[in-house]
Structure formats: C-alpha cells, structure tokens
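Reopening closed ticket. The problem is back. First fold of the pair:
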Amino acid sequence: MNRFPFRCSAVALTMLIGLGADAAHLDGADIPTGGLTLQATQDTPTGFGNSSGTQESLGGSELNALYADIEGRKLTIGITGNLEANFNKLFIFFDATDGGEASLAGDNADGGFGEINNLQGLMFEGGATMDHGLRFELGGGFLGVRFFDLIDNTASDVFTAGGPGSLPAEAAGNSAVMVGWDNSNAAGVDGSSAAGAGTATTGIELEIDLIEAFGATQGDIGISAIITSGDATFLSNQALPGLNGASNLGSPSGQTLPVAVVPGAPIPEPTAAALLGLAALATASRRR
C-alpha cells in the first residue's frame, strides 16, 4: 500500500512547501524570543571555563538552554551558549528514525578526523537509539559544521568557514540543514553556578528538513547535546539536558547522556510516485 498517496492534498501541500520554502531567518541571536518551546535548561555550572564574550569565546564553553519544535517536516532548534575556539567539539545527537545506536560504536564517520569514534561506548537515557547527528568545531582559521549518519556511517559538511572571524553566521548550510551561529555569549552559567542559565540569548539555531536530513521520522525526536575536548576523548559537564550538577564526565565509555524528547507526528519517506506528483504540482503552480 502506498503510504504517501498523491491524492492526500494536505500532505502533498506540506511537501511542496517544504521543498520550496526559504529557511527562516537564522542568526543565532535572541533565541529565547523566537517562539520555540523550552525543552531543557542547564542545571550544572560549567567545568569547561567561562567565556568573556567574543566570537572566539576565549575562556570557555557552555550550553545554557535547549529550545525546539517540530512543525510539518521541519525541526527547528535553538541552543544558547558558546564554544571555545580551541577546537573543542559540540556534538548534537538525534533519535529521529528507526535504527541507530544505543551505545556508540567504533565504526562511525563524522566528516573530520574520526573523533566521533573516540566516543565509543557513550550511551543515552531511556533506551534512545541515536541515528544522526551534528558536530560543531571552531578554532584559529577554521570553523566547521558536519552532519553524520550513524546508520550508514557517512558524513558531510553542512558548511565550513575561516574561523571565528566568519561569525556570526546567518542561514548558512544546505537544503537539509541550515545554521545560524552567534558565538559571543557571555551570560548564562559560570564556573560556580547555573542560576543564570536562562539569561543567555545567543548561540546556535538550526532548521532541519526531516525528509532530506533523516529520510523519515518516527514522530517524536530525541535530542542530546554534549561539549567535548578537541579529540572527543574527554566529556565536559556541559550537556543538554543537564547533568544535575555533575563534574566533567571524562572518558566517554560507559557514560549515559540525558535526552530531551520533542513531540512530533511521524513523517514517512516519500515514494517515487509521490515525488513525481509533487514535481507535477510544483510545475503546474509555476504556470499559473
């Protein structure tokens, strides 16, 4: 049975809008006022230093709050915080579709130097099986955002640029993942308290096309984020959701990260017939 029949005009229209619409304005600024639902607030003072508030984020890295919603085939995310320009990594993992890894294996690719395989043995709460993810890094003369597939063991660049001087970045990326990144946060948590987590306003915004990025979705999507050392052999205590006051986690093997679950409706992978129908509908729309 065709799970995605063209006669279903509402679904076809959603697909057409998703294929043709421009990305929302993404710049990494004013994230809490963007209308997204707050999914997690940091509860742990940073063990990776506290930034003085420049795009280089000299002094430290932190994650303050996670905002996210699913609408149609679009997942929109805002994460307030900052990543130090010393090639520390920010990993964001997604449990979006069938399959994936409950404990990270050692055969994955992240589009870089394979740092993701230094996370072998990292697990996720609630039996989440992570199937895709994003990796952020920033250093002298380079910044990169990479998308990886834990099922196919593949990875590709979302965008790269020439380091902190290229920030803030606005609506950078591709049709699957668009990114806005302002790394100048100086608010939020510090090394002794997490009380100010909600005051941070800048960080990373993402707009993800669920079909192009994940192929299909199971409905609700699990999200887990963690900042690591540059080679990913050492986990900080800056995770979202938070770690309830824990110190830096250290070696990834055997550690378990919490997961925020963003509600959504299942989106099946479109069939070839559906895609042909959508193409015809788009052509007819342009002729009017």
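Second fold of the pair, where the issue appears:
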Amino acid sequence: MKKRLIIFMLLAGLSSIWAEDSYKIEDIVLPKGVDPQIGALAFMPDGRLMVSFNYGKVFAYNPSTKKWKLFAEGLQLPLGMLALNDKEVLVMQRAELTKMIDHDGDGVADSFEKVYDGFGVSGNYHEYAYGPIRDKNGNLYVALNVASNNGGITPEVRGEFKSFDASQKQLAGKFKKKSVSRMYSCVPYRGWVIKISPDGTVTPYASGVRSPNGLGFDHKGRLLVTDNQGDWMGTSKLHHIEAGKFYGHPASLVWDPKVDGDPMEIPVDELNNMRTPAAAVFPHGLIANSPTQPLLDDTAGKFGPFSNQMIIGEMNQSHLVRFIPDEVAGSLQGAVVPFLNKTSLGKGNNRLAFAPDGSLWVGRIHLKWAGSEGLKRIVYTGKPPFELLGLKLTADGFDLTFTKSLDPATVKQLSASMLKCYFYEYHEAYGSKQMDMQKVVVRESKLSKDGRSLSFTLPELKEGYVYEFDLKALKNQAGQTLVSPVFSYNLIHKLR
C-alpha cells in the first residue's frame, strides 16, 4: 500500500514539473501602502494595466518599466473595470457604474461621470456589483448580488423597498435570521443581470442569479456569467445568459412584473420548470467552490493550445478552470477542467486579463473569506502540457481529444471506475449532495490512429446529470500523466 502511495505521489510530482515547464508564474510587486486585494483588471490599448484595489484606489502599471502610477482614489469597492481607450475607464463601484476620464493625458483621472446608478442599494454587506463588459454592439452588462441574512440594511435605502419577509424597519434593526430568506432582494434589481444600451436605455436583462462574480463573452459572443453555490444553488455554475430568462434563484423574482406575490411561495417544481439550466456546473470541492471571472482565450496560441476556451478564476482552490464548450440541440453545455493546478498559483484568483503579449494576469482577493491577495503574471513557455483539449458529446457517449498522443497500453488499463454520473438537487437548502451517484460502465473505448482522440461508448446517457471522468491511469507516449486527470461534463441535452 505504501509503495503504491509513493508511486502516486511521484507521478503527481512529475505532472507538476511538466506543468511548470509549460507555464511560468511571476509575482508582481505591488505599490506600497495599498490593501493588496484586487477587485478588477483591465488593459488599456497602450499596454498599461489598470488595477483596482479593494479600498478604493486604481493604479496604472507599466509592464515595460515595472512602475506604478496612481490613477484614481476614493472609489467604493471597485469590482470591475473596462478600458474604453487610453484616457477613459469604466469602473463598477458598489453603488454606481462610473466613467473615469484623464482629460489631459497625464495618467491621472481628472473627472468622474455617472453612467448608471438605477439599481437599489440597501446597505447590506453582500450587495456586490460586477462588470461591466461590452458586446460588439456597444451594449454594457453588469450583474448584481443578492443580499444576505447574515447582515441587515441601513435605515434609508436607495430605490424602492419591497420584501414579503420583513419590514424595512425590521431589516434595519435587530432581526432574527430566520425572518428573511437566506439570500433576499429587497431593492431593485438584486439577483439580475442588467443591460445598458449605448443610448442609455436600461433593461433588466435576466434574473435568478445569486452571487454572479464574473461576466465574459465566449468566442461566439455568448454572455457567460458564473454563480456561486448557496441556497437554491446545489453547486457553483456557469450560466449562458439570455434575455428574459430565469436562472434559478427566486429572490430576484420580486422585481419581475410577471410574478404576482411572494416568489418564495412558488412551488419548487414550478420554479424548476421556469429556470434555464446552467451551461456548466462546477462540482463542489473538486473543480471549483467559488468561481469568478470567465475570460476568453483569444490569444491565438500565445497562451497555449486552448484557444476559444474560457479560462475561469477560482477563489477557494489553487487553480483556474477551463470551460470547453459543446453546443448540443442549440444549447450550450460542456466540460470543466482544472487548469494550472499547482500550489505556486495559490488561491483567491478573482480577476483575469490577457496582455497584448498573450500573458495572463491574475488579481487575487479574499474579502475575509477563503482566498488570498496579490497580482501574478502567467506566461506560456511554448511547451504544451499533457491535458484534455476537447470533449464532445456523441449519440452514444463521448469523444475526447488530448494535446499529445496517448499510450495505447494505458488506454486498455483504464478501470471500470473511470466514469461516474450524478446530479445536484434544486432546492432552497444551501448546496446539495451529489444525488443518485452511479458508476458508468464503458461499453467500448476506441483510440484514433494518431493517438490523440479517445471515444467512449456508453449503455445510456442521462440528461440533467454530471459525468465525472477520472483518467489518472492514462499516459501519453512519453510516459507523462495528465496534469488534470479529473474533470466533468454537464449533460443538459442529448443529441437527437
């Protein structure tokens, strides 16, 4: 038993070494005197990196000179930025989307203009605001956190107050946590994704998100938003957000004109029929516990072989996550794979940005939860790691492709326990166990002639289930094991 453990640890160590050969991670020295928690990153066209720090300062960093310059200060928890040009930056503060403008080009913001503040603010600590991101038509999108019953509200709120659980006075005073739902939306439009058109028109775009700490567009322009495990969220998710759809957390429905009365009284089955399934789920404790920003790898190979996949931040575990998209029956679903799974990356990976040279910059945060702090730069060395490259659903199983050719002998050695399936329950309780866990028997496996693709045929496929792969036994022709051998696929729809 000890011998097997030692061998496994050696293999794990070798995988880490091979991963280090593929990517180098550099710690960036931060300016003195700032809280080193980072809420947002954005590259300007001239190559400067804008970095917002939690306690209200925004600095510009020049990667060439490695010098910092204070751009703005006095902001309130800035958790998102978008550089419009070399002089204008949008910043998402807690209570307002603001344009910061450097009129004279000296590298310091001279004016601050309100872009949008039409959402409610109750003073609850959990009412974070995220974004903005901009689509090809110039529309902006932001996302708003729901409130938590672990904290109350201020005596005065901004926006209309509405609650079916407790009065404004009760919430502003001492109250029992059970008097309100675990996560609630007492001011507009908490739990919504908001669209802001170029002409200033504001549209409550989609509802049902809980803690949407990250927005991004994929290679087809689809809006993707991460959401964190909690009440009504059996595990963390990646949503494909579309106009008018509901994504599962009923607190937001207080502000839906089509919903009459208390949304918490809607039967679970009815809510389940209303909601749009997530494009991906992150198995809790395995793939991600608190996913953050999804960022498209549009570097055309500068960051490795994963072009057109989404790189997603993760707060609680020492890795990022890759989302491999698969479009089935007109719906987006796909696989999630740990990425850069090594201790040198660390936790708290909150905000991501690609530099013009293809390096990935990662800002870290904890906000007194699990996480970390600081800024890192990740550079691809040009040596591809041995990883899962693609995963597609077939009519009777899955097709997997890899970055390197497989050793046929290890394909034959894959055990019967390499694949299992389960689902997460949709209910009001916080999180969910893996329900109806089953081993999936592989009927047949087939390796392509070039050794890069592996097909699995299964007896049946179950919609609504997560399929979890464990390919630790698999090696390539150089004897390397996969850097990330455990990953999962969210099967929403089967091929018809």
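Update: turned out to be a display glitch only; the data is intact. The CA atoms of residues 120 and 159 lie 5 Å apart. Residues 1-18 have pLDDT under 50 and may be disordered. Please close again.
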